[in-house]
Batch of 4 targets.
Target 1
Amino acid sequence: MMELICCDYCGSSDAFPIARQTDKLHGTTTEMFSIVRCSNCGLRYTNPRPTSQEIGKYYAETYSFHARSSVVRTWIRKWLKFLANSPFGVIVAAIPGLGRRLIPHISPSFPDPVRQYYASGKQGGLLDIGCGAGQSAHYWGAQGALQAYQRIAPVAGVEISEPARRILGELAIESWSDIDEVPADARFGVIRMNWSLEHVHSPTRYFEFMRTHILPHGLVIITVPNAEGIIYRLAPDCVELPIHLYHFSRGDIEHYAARHRFNVKSFATFSYPGMFLAACDAGLFPRFMSESPSYAEAKELQRVLSRFDKLEFGNDMMFILSPN
């Protein structure tokens, strides 16, 4: 079942199509989906789209952040990420078979804003909206997931996946299936939406929730794909449909933030080679590197991408907001 919607930000029904594709990345369906752009405010969104009752069937059963992660697998990922971004990477990559395994873990380095917040002595618990099973977080890995944050602060999550919530329960992490279930009087020092705002049916609803539930000195951390990033400029249909319902630019998030009385404390865009290689493998992007690129090729690509990041053309964006 599909629903036809108006723009979430301005309410206009006037929009024009800018891309159309099926689920080439996860292969959950052969249905075609369109991305439209609001003629009034410019917001890009999937329309028509699966309803909130139907969207679940478009998530692959192997969707990684909903699954349990073994201690061994977590340890291996941690060390691969360390080696991929350290001076030792070039040495390890010389070992047959290991260079290719390092490539997906090459990424730019950012201080974790959650850990920075608590290291500064500020109080209040952490609410992670779209937290998955709490054992791994996109980009941050195991060290940026709720299970690791338990050691430094009270944590809780909002997660629609029932199997993921069962794992959270086993980890003694309180969770809810929807923001409406969070107690009305609950306030948090940090609210994070880590690549989850693009998945929700109404960003307005989530901004209203965050404004109500953030402490006066708290932080809201939002990371989302950048619809104006270099990969989308080169290949506009290189998107994750239909589970990405919104396709944000920097201005879109700033508009939502201003409307809901948040200041943008910091902003950055960033990219990493793994996204380009995954897009090539899925047929979403022309293959511009060899079938089996070397670790050295991938590191060189990261160096090139970092220059575009500084021009705000990175494929992902990170916003840190504070209430005003």
Target 2
Amino acid sequence: MSGLKIALWSLWAPVRALAEAADQRRFVWPLLLVTLVSVGFGALAVERVDFASPADDELVKTPDYAKMTPHEREDKIAQAVKIGVVGTFAKGALWPAFSALASAFMLWLGFKVAGGKPGFVATFAVVAHSLLPDAVKLLASLPALLTRAASLSALELERLLPSNLGALLAETTKANQLALLSSVDLFALWSLAMLAVGMVHVARVTGLRSTVVVTVLWASFVLVFRFALPSLMPQS
């Protein structure tokens, strides 16, 4: 199969497709598809996200706020809006490849420690395909995004599609608790299942061992980067 067919087939027949992707070192098409969807979603989102209000709220907290002229305040807010827009596009363009590379390294190392024999490029190919459910989630979120007339906050943008446990919580919930439960997402679980299936072939381990390694690595990431570290940051 071609790289594009393997990428699409991996969403509903992962056992065969991911094994073929790993053996043929196919990773360009899934990364390209996820990046295109992310950039396209970002282009639609920046027209609806309210970057100015949070910037104004932060500006009010600065010691020099009272000394600023209205023109200076407008300039500061305009700069923050530009940074938000550029950051949205940069995240869409760069984050898929960066996250795939970082995840592949951690998986490769984790399976080495667990007694597997994974190849790094093959692992990277499996990880790249496991990002495709993220693209599906963004596409599924488009109707909700396009029907929102009012400006969205960054939190509301993340909660457009109620596919995770965080959608059940109030917006006033602590950020680290919200991030922790938001990580338990249907599309994230789909990605994890693809990783576990693909790494059985790549690392030459049993399905149980692959599932345990993938789950432990994912849980460790969530607890450290989505819960513990945000807890240490000062609350605004």
Target 3
Amino acid sequence: MVLELTDKNFEAEVIKSDKLTLVDFWAPWCGPCKVLGPIVEELAGEIKNLPVKVAKLNVDDNSASASSYGVMSIPTTIFFKGGQPVDQLVGVQTKEDLKKKINELLV
């Protein structure tokens, strides 16, 4: 299951999380975001047994969180570990590339 983030719950769900957290920064009007969305959903189902949280943040409705991490292009995927951003991917990614990045960051 993908967690829906807002500016209000971002700190509690991402910054204070003890899990590696993948955050998909997206918007409903963004074509590439519509391609990445189902990939992220499918990935969340496949990795539910790993200590990883998968979340989405609509940048139109929650611009404070997006701007605080310098998100200028969407979709942007930022990986957080220990409350800090540790890696970032811009554009549509394959499920395999996202899994590979998660496995690298879990080590």
Target 4
Amino acid sequence: MKTKIELIVNGKIYAVEVEPTMTLLDLIRDKLELTGTKEGCGEGDCGACTVIMDGKAVNSCLVLAINAHGSEIVTIEGLGKGKELDPLQDAFIKHGAIQCGFCTPGMILTAKALLESNPNPSDGEIKLAISGNLCRCTGYVQIIEAVKDVAAMKEGK
């Protein structure tokens, strides 16, 4: 039996019918056709499916779509304005924190949620925040540097 839910994704209101077992990941990718959110492990271990839900980074593969009713979701497509990239996206490019790119959307959204709650995180806080996001290519150093760069920009350094 399908249930109608309403949610805001990237500033746009959606009213959709979902199956009780549909995940937020499947809703985002299949119904809303926002394919920047990636499916990796399907078990919440890799972070490829990370989105920001009500201000917090979550693994969308672990959230039932029905539980997102009334929530505000930000996907990688919701960052930036038009053709202008979000500062984190720019920093990831500048620091070479994007290689194969599969982890990038989830990693950027995790970092975005961190910087929203903690504008000047330490290296340890950055490492802890991204610990749920696996990256097989970069070794994480470039990712940490990109996040620190954006934090420094916000601080005016």
